[in-house]
Task: structure prediction
Amino acid sequence: MLIFQSEGLIDQWCKRNNQQRGEILSVAQVWQLSKLWYHNRLSEEFHGRSNDQAAAIFRQAGLTSSFWYV
Amino acid sequence: MLWRVRAYIYRHFAENSHPPSAEETARHLKLEVRATENIFTELNERHAIFLDPETGSIRMANPFSAVQTNYRVLSNGRTYYANCAWDMLGVPSALHSDATIQAICSETNEMVKLHIRHGQVSASDLRIHFPIPFSKWFEDLAYT
Result:
């Protein structure tokens, strides 16, 4: 996942690198996702997560397009 | 023991900004080095960590990176490197700490900054590109 100063620069990068455009999120959206995804990563009780749990996090973060299907 | 090793790797990353070697891990947990290497391999297969395919050392324990990247996170008086633009926000989330993030725009190569304070991220027009659908993330983790 890469960071860009604007959406237009993502299009420019995709064209220059012959890459397809994927999903573009704001920093605020990714921060919300990060809090849900990583908040318990240092816990000894964290043993990975199932696809269902991953899907639930994406839904909670408002990421519902097919891009996020698990 | 598998999850004790995982927890030690993460604790070591958080406290030192870099991962432990198999030897350090074995010494700390009173294990044989060979057995510890086997546990590293099993954690890698479970995607709990990512081993460098050439050296067998820990390359990633998401969100932390063992190698310098374009995503630097200053937090708790330490400098961490994250694996990607998502993980740079994952570091303060995992550490439950304030942070200053210095990253490089992939198109302009200019440095951009973000701040995490009291659980909030600073206002920003920056955008993060997820190029690959989630279902394919683990096909080539280094690229992802």
